[in-house]
Structures are given as structure tokens and as C-alpha cells.
Amino acid sequence: MVNKYWKINERVMHYIEQRDIVLASLIKGECEEKDEIIVNRLITSSERFEVLKRQFWKCNICGCKLKFKKENDWIGEVAHIDHIHPFSKKESYPNGPLLINELSNLQGLCPTCNLKKGSKRIQ
């Protein structure tokens, strides 16, 4: 069980490191080719926590109570972290495709609202 845990953490750390490398290259102007840019959907636990805390642990659409994960004791739906500007349309994101996962583009939704929203942008 411990080995499985470490493999998952290694994979997560790899994605975080890759994201940081690409962002640093973009800032320095070293990354010009569009094919060099790799963007993934990875949202870290700390980012997830910040999004939910910012929304006072409520769904951004219907206002129902949310919780961080299924194991939490309090009553509420397990939060889905959603992209306000859909990830599938990252190329048209106003701040650029690399910043599609920035906190200002993330919101916490209950599973029902997230599935209803799909890839539509909610204003």
C-alpha cells in the first residue's frame, strides 16, 4: 500500500515540476513553439482547498454545502473543482492556455451543478 501511495505522489510531483518548468520558460521567452507547451488538468490539494475556502465551502451555482473529500465528517456534497473557462477550450482562454488552471479560473461546484454545466462557461 505504501508503494502505491509513493508512486501516485511521484506522478503528481512530476506534473507540478513540469508545469513550473514550462511557466518559467514562457516567462523567460525560451518557449516559442506551441508544441512545446503541455498543459494538464492537475489541481493540487492546496489549490483545491483555496478555491473551496474562497467560496465559504458552498457550490458556486446552487449554494449547497461542499466538503473536501468523502471521508470528511460534516454534511455536504463532495466538491468538484471546475474550470470557469472550460479546460477543453484552453486555447481561447484570455490569459493564455498555460494559465487555464489559475485560481481565478477555478470554482467549486456540487456534482449535480458540475455535470449540468458540462463544458459551458457560466457567467
Structure description:
- The chain has 123 residues and is an alpha+beta fold.
- It has two domains: 1-38; 43-123, no CATH class.
- 36% of the residues lie in helices and 10% in strands.
- It is built from three helices and four strands.
- It has helices at residues 2-28, 45-54, 111-117; strands at residues 66-67, 77-78, 80-83, 106-109.
- The protein has a two-stranded parallel ribbon with strand order 1-2. A two-stranded antiparallel ribbon has the order 3-4.
- The longest helix has 27 residues, at 2-28.
- Mean pLDDT is 79; it is low at 1-7.
* Strand order of the biggest β-sheet: 1-2
Terminal residue distance: 43 Å
Strand segment count = 4
Q: Roughly what is the average pLDDT, rounded to an integer?
A: 79
Q: How many whole angstroms does the radius of gyration measure?
A: 16 Å
Strand content: 5-15%
| Dominant shape | globular
H-E order: HHEEEEH
Put simply, the count of helices is 3
Largest sheet, strands/sense/barrel: 2 strands, parallel
User: What class do helices, strands and sheet pairing give?
Assistant: alpha+beta
Low-confidence stretches: 1-7
Domains, number: 2
Helix content: 25-40%
What is the secondary structure topology, with strand pairs?
Layout: H1 2-28, H2 45-54, E1 66-67, E2 77-78, E3 80-83, E4 106-109, H3 111-117
Parallel strand pairs: 1-2
Antiparallel strand pairs: 3-4
